[in-house]
Amino acid sequence: MNEILSHADGGVLTLTLNRVERKNSLNVAMYAALADAIEQAAEDAATRVIVIQGHETVFSAGNDIQDFLKNPPAGAESPVFRFLRGIATFPKPLLAAVCGPAVGVGTTLLLHCDLVYAGDNAAFSMPFVNLGLCPEAASSLLVPRMFGYHRAAEALLLGEPFFAEAALEVGLVNRIVPPSEANALAQQQAKKLAAKPISSLIETKRLMKGPQQEVVLRRMAEEGAAFGRMLREPAALEAMNAFMEKRHPDFSKL
Ligand code: COA
Fold this sequence. Notes:
Blueprint: E1 4-9, E2 12-17, H1 28-43, E3 49-53, H2 65-70, H3 79-89, E4 94-98, E5 101-103, H4 105-108, E6 115-119, E7 123-125, H5 139-147, H6 149-158, E8 162-163, H7 164-170, E9 175-177, H8 179-194, H9 198-231, H10 234-244
Parallel strand pairs: 2-3, 3-4, 4-6, 5-7, 6-9
Antiparallel strand pairs: 1-2, 7-8
The protein binds coenzyme A.
């Protein structure tokens, strides 16, 4: 089965995470498919807007933990880092529709979207510390900026979930709707954008985001180096093995 569905219609490219039985966790092949689609869409005049969406019950459980253990990202050209750079530098509008759990990169990718629509069942979390890891996707920079430092510390140090209303309050999402309406609302807004002059959209996004892009990419690289190192260290190995063995991790000796 194709785990990333790609559908183009009237200038809108919709990328659907389609691995619901594994809670749309993202493996290397999925990151590569997403990165390829986004890189191509950036160049292709036929694509004016991208929408990333999941399922009504789950957006994404983040990195596929087994796959991450087997195929840890190796260097800047690895699919996960290509994907993250792709969303951070995508010059045209990037939208997301989020329902259910959005864990790890399932939440941090939203920091790079222009518009985000959430189902009222959305549950966001960035449990990197609980996994013996550190933030990625420039979330260590963008979350404090967006949430304010203390709320960012709660999200990134405690790693506890927060829900649609809190996400709306900090500005991570634009609107909350019933889960059955989130994908349709994102499509409706994407179609509106696709009908606007693309040169104005690109210029406006560049003016809004351009000045911080270099800083974001630098932070992503810095986080990526630490994340890659920490993935091989005892705390992450204990956390990921505990997840697969369905037990609580024991960090007491680490
Ligand atoms: N990597 C690999 N497999 C995953 C996964 C992930 N990130 N998230 C879920 N799965 C698997 C589960 O192991 C389970 O497999 P099984 O049927 O063989 O037991 C299956 O997907 C269903 O997940 P389950 O945990 O039973 O669903 P749930 O509805 O109770 O909970 C989540 C959903 C997303 C809250 C929960 O799966 C979760 O916390 N996942 C891990 C998230 C995480 O830590 N991601 C890494 C971020 S860097």
